[in-house]
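Researcher: Let's walk through a ligand-bound prediction step by step. First, I give you the protein sequence. Second, the SMILES string for zinc ion. Third, you return the three-dimensional complex as C-alpha cells. Ready?
Model: Ready.
Researcher: Here are steps one and two:
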Amino acid sequence: MLKWADIIRFANEGNPTPERRVEKTDQEWQAELTPEQYRITREKATERAFSSQMCSLFEPGLYACVCCDTLLFDAGEKFESGSGWPSFTQPVKENSIAYTLDNAHGMQRMETLCNTCGAHLGHVFPDGPAPSGLRYCMNAVALMKTASCQSKATFGGGCFWCTEAIFQQLAGVSRVESGYSGGEIANPTYQAVCTGQTGHAEVVQITFDQTVISYADLVRIHLSTHNPTTHNQQGADRGTQYRSIILAYDAEQDAVARQVIEEMASAYDDPIVTEVQPLETFYTAEDNHQDYYVSNPRKPYCNAVISPKLQKFRELFREKLKDQPVTMTP
Ligand SMILES: [Zn+2]
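Model: Step three, the predicted complex:
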C-alpha cells in the first residue's frame, strides 16, 4: 500500500517503471480525444468542481485512463471527499501512477500522471482516510469507468514469500497480497502464525482479471509450483502454517478447485493432500512480508529457495507471464 512517504520518494528519486508505455504526438492525442479531455489530460487543466456525476458513483468496477485505457483505480478505493472531484485512497497498482512536484498557481502540490501515457489526472494529498492517508483528487474527465472482471483467489502452498513471487509474474494478475487464513484466531501476527498454534496457513490473496487468466489456470499453476503431496510441509519448512490449501470464495471456485486436483492427480506419485475449504477471513500480513522477494532478492532464502523455484515456474508457464522483463537474482 502506498503512503505519503512513498509518493515523496517517487517524486524525488524517480517513478516506478510502468508495464508498458504509450507515446503519441500532440496532434495524435488531439485527434483521439474530445477538446475537454485534451485540455485536461494533455494541457493539465482542471475541471470545475462538482461538474461530474462520477463523484457520487460508488458501484463496483474499475477506472481507467481515458487516453490509454490503463487501469488506474478500483471503485473499492473510492470515497466521498466532499471536494467535488472523484477521490480515491489508493491506485490499483503501485506503478500505475507517476508523481511530480507541481509549483503552478503559487502552490506546492503533488501532480499525478498516468504512468503509461503521461496524461495529467489531478493531484494527490496526504489528507485521505486511513490506512493509506492518501487522497487522489482526480479529474473525472481523465477517467473512464469500466466493468469489473476482477476476481479473487486465495491459496497457501508453503512460505508466502515464494507463492507471492510466483503469482506476481502472471499476466492478468493485478495484485498479490501475503496474509493468513484458515485458522482460529482473529488478526494473527507473523510470530503467532509461525508457532503453528493459530491454525492459520500462510496464504496469498490474488486479484485477477478473469478475461485474461481463469481460476482453473491459477489452481493448476498453484499445484504445479509447490508440492501438494506433502502434509504440513514444503521442503525444509514444516508446520501447519505451511500446509497446501485452497480457500474458495464461492461454490463455483470450490468445484473448479476439486476438479483441477482430480485432473492433476495422475501427475504425482503420491496423493494430493491439498485442502479445499471455504474462505472465511483473509488477514493481510505485516508490511515487511509484502513484496518480500522483490524487495529482498539478495537475502539467502530468496537466493536459495525462491529464485530457482521462479526460474522453473517461468519456463513452465512462459505463455502466461506478464511481458515485462523480470529482474532475476544473478
Ligand atoms: Zn494513460
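Researcher: And what stands out?
Model: The longest strand covers residues 173-181. Residues 65, 67-68, 70, 114, 116-117, 119 surround zinc ion (CB under 6 Å).
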